[in-house]
Design brief:
- Two copies of one chain form a homodimer.
- Helices cover 84% and strands 0% of the residues of chain A.
- By secondary structure, chain A is an all-alpha fold.
Chain lengths: 699, 699
């Protein structure tokens, strides 16, 4: 049976990749449109390519250094020899996911704009197909790597279950490190360009958004691709892989002493992922729309696909657990279901707080009447308040998953249940990511339509698609942060298992919050997301300021630019954003890797567990707060632009633009990076566990 | 010996009150100045009186309801019969502290302005004397109530040590509830009036600050008295009393089984408080200045007093512990010292991040060059980043206090050490609060000088005093939040002691962060300060909006107002602020009391401990973040007004005003309320512990 299971997982992975290839061919079969469109798309593509090349070069150095450090530790017997290699491959595939996503997105932008000239449905098809390439590449590559490593470690190196999961967790650390670089770097790039372009273009020079005279306009579009596409691809690759392998690791711990069950428990999340791919592919066939640009109809078109996929996996998970884990453990099915449902509900809550169809954002927009200060206060309050519902949802999901899985009788099984909830939440990532990743493609298409002077109805259609993208992005963020919290909890449990393996007296019960080492760890951990958010926000501010200065300069020095007689130097702005974002992405990532080691050395493993718990709790809150505040400001501005509270150009609109600008780094740089941070902290702790166990201050 | 100790505490309390009376007489001996000044001061006084009267009426209803509930619980045997009475007296004295502070502050404002006509030193003496009345009233009343209850319970009702501390913790809950009402209500009042007055007066009508034509100008000055004075008085009364009684409770737990030592351990924090009063009084005699308005010289004048008091108590604490607790426990002295030092260092860190003499605020001011969005992003980043140093300071203080006090050998002694650190930090509250409370008096004096058209050099002097007040307020906030974190930790320990008393198998070690009930409690607790901050910020926004509308109305309807021929209806604005702030203060306070009970019923005492730990960590972070962001924006604006980056009236200044307005509710409403929240949550949990122990869902 073992071999069959591995083959099934492998087949699932190949299926996803094959589907991604088919979708990619479909995208490429469309026409890119006019010469001008081709030219613009080409500059965006080359800018994104150039940026990623430089980013990967820097990341390569980091990975080389880490490889040497991990190699040294393996040599000293603190790690198994597979660890350094697993680390590197995790990083490689995470980067590859982002790269493929960027490639297809930059190929699809002009094609989407061109398709929108024919009709809305055609436009949606191109953009959604491009999103699908990204979605299925992420899950396909993720599952492929997991299955290859799994097969290698099991059948070639004959490791036991705990040896396998231990190596695979390092694989996750590689993926998370890469993801953090991609998210932070890409996030800084995209927001620096966006803020810079807006501040000088819209506010100072008074030219519209995406106007070709703005020197930062190409950088802005490049930013969408390297931030919202490549960054998100690497990010969700990490989430996906992280949830599967942390669940596998807890499965091994839950059935310790029973090799056969250990194997099955380890395989369950992987097979569920494979099944999820199948369900997602089926779902994609049900995404289509008519020609009306109404948001409700468009949203329905996408929801049909994602909902169907969710229902299918909810049904399929039951026999999976019943037959593989056996009747006595069928209650674990409830854990999967709890996770799936929690993901959907967090998405709904995000939608409620950030969509202008509901009260909160409408009320926020009305605060523009008394100026920018009140809309800022209002948005901050909205974001903070919006943390309450997701906290309760996650709380209920954790309680359910833990206790139905046997928590009262067995903590190990209960924790495995929590990890399974995370896998349940992400099982249909293929399609949810497709609906999420299509947004930036539509956004770029709008930019190209504007710059190449297409008919107004084309821009109307791309705008409709783009607006919808904001809603699906909100839902996607719900899944990302919800699964991050659950996965982080699972990783903390894995960390304790690792310590338990070295000292049997240490158990899950050993980490009382009243132990001052745990407590101080908790305080420090809770502080980390704040510091991290501060650093990334400041980085955006600094980078944006350099863009502002450059754009002002070009407006002044290039004669005939404002009259449309001369071209601005787009490449210089792209280069500027690249350089500053690459410089700024290093410190936050290094902090995420160094702090857990320092905390471990000073406060021991008690301090580390406290730190991880604190970072997970405060990171979850801060990520939701920042994402929702940012989303609400963005949509409040759009709501005003749609003609409410004075409409475009009014004082109210100006106040809302300030809100939106503050929200930019909130929702697209700091907020999403925190998701990765909380998992990376755990993975680093796990990898360095043996070192910390042997060397730390004895209090 | 017992009786002598109690007498010593009692004498300390009377000494403080006597000193406050002397200082009050001194203040009243000064002249109120011209008729106009008297009239303005009288309107401020009557507005503040009217507000507090209404506030106390509402609070009275709350206390009556709670008295009935607690009485019912006492009747059912879930509480001792002293509890309801202790609760009510705690609330009464907390309110009284605020009331006395407000009385003297409103009596001193015109006198300070008038004294400034003679010279700077005379002005400082009046304002500082008024601050001293408040400071010594708070500590005097605090210690008086503690000693009376202590004497009653011990000598009249003959309770044992744990019975005494248990009743006294309820006394703390009463004080905290009152403090939260006062802080939240007063905070909303003062910021609604401030923001409202600024938005219409300064921005729309273009008249200067404190201009008598602005209908909200009296409300603004009333706000300083009911928020920054009465609110702060109730707040610090609660902090002071809370730290002493939680320390006493842990002393009893630390020496359980040894009645004599229990008594001594309980008495130590009270005697230290009494000694602290003596040291503070000595310190006040060293506060005097020359006639130069330089900040450095003025700050030196105040620091001389506070530093001397701190050194004196640091010296005096040693023999106290050595002789009363005995040689074998002298290491507890280090805990006191750690607390004292931590308070000073957190204050320094606050000063570094918020004073325009240092880099962070200067850099923040420079962000005004690219508009309000960048200065907002910058300020948020600054506040978030500024959490790191205080976290490390508190971490080191906790580690030191715990381990030097015997933590490795005895957790009980270690926790007692942490509580002693909090007492050490607050022991010289008499003088630190005096330096803090004098700020709003100087602020009011400036307003009166402006409104009654005094000579420009008078305003210059009051401004110098006011500016200094910002720095001392920052230091004061450091003590308030630092002691809140330590006291909250001590209260969590007391809570566990209480549960331990009902079920011996529950110990400090029982609350592992991997227990899902603890974990979910942690998440919910971490979320509470966010929700609380959101509610209070929104409340300020709503209340300010109503003031804006009223002021606009008066400008329109009252003929000759702008020409100075007619008087505005000041009372209407005061009434408006009163009504909205009183309405808005109820929900946040009720949440703070209801949520711990609900969490207890659903998640049991495991959930409660998790909640308290989570709220303490995230509340500490959020309070520092909000206070420092707000302080930095305020001073960045002042820095620009001093002539940098374009100076007053420039675009940069306008951007900085937006930052300052966002910062107002941050630093004066939400931030300081969170300090109280985290302690109130613990106290409510302790009072309802027996109920929760008997009735909660069994997972």
């Amino acid at each position: 049976m073992e071999l069959y299971l591995v083959i099934a997982i492998f087949v699932g992975a190949l299926l996803a990749i094959a589907f991604a290839v088919i979708m990619a061919k479909r995208v490429l079969s469309f026409d890119e449109g006019t010469e001008k469109m081709k030219k613009i798309s080409a500059s965006i593509r080359s800018g994104a390519n150039a940026y990623l090349k430089r980013q990967y070069t820097i990341v390569l150095i980091f990975f080389a250094v880490m490889f040497v450090i991990l190699g040294g530790m393996a040599f000293a017997g603190l790690l198994t020899p597979y660890v350094p290699f697993a680390f590197v491959t995790g990083g490689f595939f995470s980067g590859l996911s982002g790269f493929v996503g960027m490639k297809i997105a930059t190929a699809a932008n002009a094609r989407t704009a061109n398709a929108c000239r024919t009709g809305l449905n055609k436009g949606l098809r191109v953009a959604f197909s491009a999103g699908s390439v990204m979605g299925f590449t992420v899950v396909g590559l993720g599952l492929l790597d997991i299955s290859i490593w799994f097969a290698l470690l099991k059948f070639v190196f004959n490791l036991d279950a705990s040896g396998i999961t231990s190596a695979m967790l390092t694989f996750g650390m590689g993926a998370s490190s890469m993801a953090l670089f991609a998210r932070v770097g890409g996030g800084i790039f995209t927001k620096a360009a966006d803020v810079g372009a807006d501040l000088v273009g819209k506010v100072e020079a008074g030219i519209p958004e995406d106007d070709p005279r703005n020197p930062a306009v190409i950088a802005d579009n490049v930013g969408d691709n390297v931030g919202d596409v490549a960054g998100m691809g690497a990010d969700l690759y990490e989430s996906y892989v992280g949830s599967v392998i942390s669940c596998a690791a807890l499965g091994v711990a839950a059935f310790s002493g029973n090799g056969d069950m250990q194997f099955k428990a380890m395989a369950i999340p992987m097979i569920m992922a494979a099944l999820g791919i199948l369900c997602s592919i089926i779902g994609t066939f049900f995404v289509r729309t008519g020609e009306k640009t109404e948001q409700k109809l468009l949203l329905k078109a996408l929801s049909r696909g994602t909902n169907l996929a969710a229902v299918l996996i909810a049904v399929a998970a039951f026999p999976l657990i019943w037959f593989i884990l056996g009747q006595e453990h069928w209650t674990l099915y409830w854990a999967v279901l709890a996770g799936l449902l929690a993901g959907v509900l967090i998405g709904k809550s995000t939608e409620y707080f950030t969509s202008d169809s509901y009260g909160p954002t409408k009320k926020l927009a009305s605060k523009s009447e008394t100026g920018s200060a009140t809309i800022i206060i209002g948005g901050l309050g909205l974001g903070m308040l919006s943390t309450a519902i997701p906290i309760v949802i996650v709380g209920i999901a954790v309680l359910t998953a833990f206790f139905v899985s046997g928590g009262a009788a067995s903590t190990n099984l209960g924790l495995y249940g929590i990890a399974l909830a995370a896998v349940g939440m992400l099982s249909t990532l293929g399609i949810t990511l497709a609906t999420d990743a299509y947004g930036p493609v539509a956004d770029n298409a709008g930019g190209i339509a504007e710059m190449s002077g297409l008919e107004p109805e084309v821009r109307e259609r791309t705008d409709a698609l783009d607006s919808l993208g904001n809603t699906t992005a909100a839902t996607g963020k719900g899944f990302a942060i919800g699964s991050a919290a659950l996965t982080a909890l699972a990783l903390i449990a894995s960390y304790i298992d690792k310590i338990h393996g070295m000292d049997e007296t240490v158990t899950y019960e050993s980490f009382s919050v009243m132990n001052p080492l745990v407590l101080i760890g908790l305080f420090i951990g809770a502080c980390l997301p704040f510091v991290f958010a501060a650093l990334t926000m400041d980085a955006v501010g600094r980078a944006a300021q350099s863009v502002v200065i450059e754009v002002r300069n070009q407006f002044k020095k290039i004669k005939g630019l404002m009259e449309g007689k001369a071209d601005p130097d787009y490449a210089k702005c792209v280069d500027m954003c690249s350089r500053s974002s690459l410089k700024e992405m290093i410190l936050p990532t290094v902090i995420a890797i160094v702090v857990p080691v320092i905390v471990g050395l000073v406060l021991g493993f008690y301090g580390v567990v406290g730190m991880l718990a604190g970072a997970t709790a405060s990171g979850f809150l801060l990520a939701i707060f920042m994402s929702n505040s940012g989303g609400a400001w963005d949509n409040a501005k759009k709501y005003i632009e749609a003609g409410n509270h004075g409409g475009k150009g009014s004082e109210q609109h100006k106040a809302a633009v300030v809100g939106d600008t503050v929200g930019d780094p909130f929702k697209d740089t700091s907020g999403p990076s925190i998701n990765i941070l909380i998992k990376l902290l755990s993975m680093v702790s796990i990898v360095f566990a043996a070192l910390i166990f042997n060397v730390h201050i004895q209090w």
